[in-house]
Design a protein that fits this description.
This protein has 262 residues and is mostly helical. The protein has 10 helices and 3 strands. The protein starts with a helix and ends in a 7-residue tail after the last helix.
Length: 262
């Protein structure tokens, strides 16, 4: 199982580094997130049959990789530009190609979703797709040039630093603890990390109806609501969410003699 997980990790890294345009990165991220979810679920099952601490570290590592979403990758790319001494002229070229790609994708989406297409739409759609293809080629060529010419850009953009359990523990004081959640397809995983201990709990997912109800309670729709009833609902629903999401992690922290730092 772990060999398959490591193989999927190599495949994810190759996928992430092979596609450079933002539209491609968004599509690839969906595939990567699904793969990461499977890795986390599998590692938790393997962990139940072994007390090896490495399995817990593996799980935490994959949850941190899942944070490498499109937003984080965009932030990494912006940081890479700032710290790699890339000339403004090249930065302008990159931004210009991004803006053009965004404009072309908008045009293509509008034409493809048009209820009553005009006769000329088919030709226009073909033209836009052709220009978008040229845009992607130009963007990829420019990215390859930046990666080869500015090594620091490649390092920051494609090798982001991933948090580790040990790294988190080094940052915690003796009176602090971290509770971190990963929402998977089937379960929620809650990591509790103190300066001296670390563990993970598998929790049931909160239903959509429970989330909607809690939102309705904390954001009243009208002034005519009975405040006593609303308050009672708030207390009951809060306790239910606490029991489902915080009770186990909180108890684990208390057993480790580490109070939650408020």
């Amino acid at each position: 199982a772990l060999k398959l997980i490591n193989l999927s990790k190599s495949s994810r890294d190759e996928l992430r580094n092979s596609y450079r345009s933002e539209s491609d990165q968004i599509a690839i991220q969906r595939v990567i997130n699904s793969s990461l979810n499977n890795s986390i679920e599998t590692t938790f099952l393997v962990k139940n049959y072994s007390d090896k601490y490495t399995f817990l570290e593996e799980m935490f590592y994959y949850t941190q990789l899942s944070k490498s979403s499109q937003l984080l990758e965009t932030l990494n790319r912006n940081l890479a530009f700032q710290q790699s001494n890339i000339p403004d002229s090249l930065t302008l070229q990159v931004n210009g190609l991004k803006q053009q790609a965004s404009y072309l994708n908008t045009k293509i989406n509008k034409l493809e979703n048009k209820e009553k297409p005009a006769e000329s739409d088919s030709s226009s759609l073909s033209d836009f797709k052709s220009v978008l293809l040229d845009n992607k080629v130009a963007f990829n060529d420019l990215m390859l040039y930046l990666e080869k010419t500015f090594p620091k850009y490649y390092e920051i953009n494609y090798n982001p630093k991933i948090a580790t359990i040990e790294g988190v523990q080094d940052r915690l004081t003796k009176n602090e603890a971290l509770i971190e959640y990963f929402v998977g397809k089937e379960h929620i995983y809650a990591f509790t990390i103190s300066p001296d201990t670390a563990m993970v709990h598998q929790l049931a997912k909160v239903s959509d109806s429970a989330i909607s109800l809690f939102r309705e309670i904390i954001i009243p729709k009208g002034l005519g609501q009975n405040l006593n009833v609303t308050y009672r609902q708030y207390v009951d629903q809060s306790h239910q969410l606490y029991t489902q999401l915080l009770a186990k992690p909180h108890e684990a922290i208390k057993k480790s003699k580490t109070p939650i730092n408020k």
